[in-house]
Amino acid sequence: MDYETDVETTAQEAFKSLFGKIGADRARRVVNVLMESPFFYRDDDIDLFGILKRRRSVFREFFEAFFGWELYVDDYIARLIKPKVFNTELRPTQRHVFRLSGRQEYVLFVLLLEFHQRQADEQNLDLDACDEVRFVLADFIDFVFKRFQEQLGEDAPSEEKILDGCRSLFKTLEKYRFIAERERIGVAADTGIKAGFTKEGKSDVLYALLPGLRCYRAEALSKVDMLGGHVADESENPEDGSQIGQLVESDADNTHQEEMMSPVSPEETEA
Question: Which of 79, 197, 215, 250 fits a disulfide with 167 by CB distance 3.0 to 4.6 angstroms?
Fold first, then answer.
């Protein structure tokens, strides 16, 4: 037996030893699913999620020992958390993680978190006991417009600008599986999703807020936050909006700064 074959055999034996009661094939599927997207939702694969939830201590041990990563699992969602960036040459924008592209998107995302909780209250839903919260796009647009009006009055952006900003934000949030489109009717069904982000089509699109949003919380936005701030030094007013309000990522036991604990993407988890 040559060296490479010996190492491969040893690695396989170690994997089988750790996941013996689960089975190497099923354990390998769980590991790959966790690495393929920022979130593994129960509805993605109920049986596989059940295996992960029942044996989460074993999977936690695996990711901690081999990668130094944390594994979070609750009734509806599982995700990997990287507490440290090892390549110090990477700028934040070069990392393959969920990141908002500017101050406007950041403000809209914080408002979406507020809207998420409000919708749960209005629909009498327990966010810890449901897999999604559905809403009509028009309800969110109207909510955002009202919040801007309350804070900024005549300085509030137009509804068209809000719709344009939401279209960009929602594209990012769908990519990272924070939201999902559920239904289109009317003009949005006839001519495409872009038509849904108009005054005429905003009532024609139904979205779902997914459990991944529960990993974030935010304090209320100030008037300065929503205006975009007025600071002399650009370094104090970052384009990613990271100093607006206090957006942090949280799990059942800990609260982490957004920059350190951004959701893991498939590209970032590659060896």
Answer: 197
User: Whole domain around residue 53: which residue ranges?
Assistant: 3-81
Residue 144 has pLDDT above 90, yes or no: yes
Burial class (CB in 10 A: 0-12, 13-18, 19+), 135: buried
Give dist(CA 146, CA 211) in Å, integer.
25
Task: Decide if 86 is inside a domain.
Answer: no
What's the whole-model pTM score? Answer: 0.77
Name the maximum alpha-carbon separation found in the chain. 77
- Closest by CA to 116, choosing from 127, 124, 101, is 127
Could you tell me if residue 129 is inside a domain?
yes
Beta bridge partners of 77: 41
Q: Is the pLDDT of residue 268 over 80?
A: no
Interatomic CA distance for residues 30 and 40, integer angstroms: 9
Q: What residues pair up with 180 in beta bridges, in sequence order?
A: 208
111 plus 208 within the same structural domain = yes
Q: Is the pLDDT of residue 175 over 50?
A: yes
Number of domains in the chain: 2
Adjacent-strand bridge partners of 217: 248
CA distances from 223 to 129, 147, 151, 239, 244 (A): 34, 10, 6, 17, 11
What is d(CA 177, CA 119) in angstroms, rounded to the nearest whole number? 19
Q: What are 190-241's pLDDT values in tens digits?
A: 999 999 999 999 999 999 999 999 888 766 666 667 666 332 333 333 333 3
pLDDT attached to residue 237: 37
The DSSP bridge pattern shows strands 40-41 and 205-209 to be unpaired
